[in-house]
Structure formats: C-alpha cells, structure tokens
C-alpha cells in the first residue's frame, strides 16, 4: 500500500488552488498574463515561489506543470495577483 504523499495531507481549498493554477498553465499565456498585469518579472515570481526564473518560464509556456509544495505557493501567489487585478 502506498502512502498518500503530499496531496493526501492537503485541504480541499488547496487542491482547488492547484487545479486552478494548472488550468492557467494549460491555457497558453494565461499565467503569464496574470504575472505581467501585476508588473512582476519572472525572477520576482520565482523568488517568491522558491524556484528559478526558468522554471516559472517553463510553467508559463506549458512545458512543465508545477507540482508539490511549490505548486501550492505558485497558485496562492497567482490567486492573489489575479484578485488584485480584478
């Protein structure tokens, strides 16, 4: 029997956030649009999330999907940026 891992200990609101950010990543340019509307660079977002600028760039281009704890941090950040732009 395998352990539930990181996702098994998450609240449903956190899972919703991760699903939301993954849907943004799957939409070409959507995550980038949120970041740019907030006036942030790749490097600024990367520093806030704890990854490299190239990792954020790959997420934004849909080449990779954020996973694990960094996905949740990224989702929370984009959610705040999206709400402040609305």
Distance between the termini: 45 Å
Largest β sheet strand count, sense and barrel closure: none
Radius of gyration: 13 Å
Known CATH architecture: Orthogonal Bundle
Number of helices: 6
List keywords for this structure.
71% helix; single chain; disordered N terminus; globular; mainly alpha; 434 Repressor (Amino-terminal Domain); 86 residues
Describe the structure.
- 71% of the residues lie in helices and 0% in strands.
- With 86 residues, it is mainly α.
- It has a single domain (11-85), classed as 434 Repressor (Amino-terminal Domain) (Orthogonal Bundle).
- It is globular.
- It starts with a helix and ends with a helix.
- Residues 1-8 have low confidence and may be disordered.
Short description:
By secondary structure, the protein is an all-alpha fold. It contains 6 helices and no strands. The protein has one domain: 434 Repressor (Amino-terminal Domain) (Orthogonal Bundle), CATH 1.10.260.
Topology:
Elements: H1 5-8, H2 12-26, H3 30-37, H4 42-49, H5 53-60, H6 68-85
Helix pairs in contact: 2-6, 3-6, 4-5
